[in-house]
What we know:
mainly alpha; 4 helices
Amino acid sequence: MKPFMFYSLFLALCHRLFDIESLRPCHEFEASLPMNDELVISNLGSLANAMTEDPPERTLAEFVDSSTAGTNTKKKRHTRFSWFCRAMEDSPIK
């Protein structure tokens, strides 16, 4: 995992666990804790698989685009963070 991906995932996890107020404008979680571990693992697996698919699944193309060339822009960081947060919701991301 590339460092920028880890950072986005870790920030999303911290936000999920501790509801960081300054991150709420980027993503507000619909469900409260605890997380459905099996669903979160499945969602994160879907994101990981999308990174290796050519072409990626259409619904996950935005995530893949934010994780490739030019990754250090505010928009792409926001997009990655939002997708990782969505992966920790109580619904499948597909």
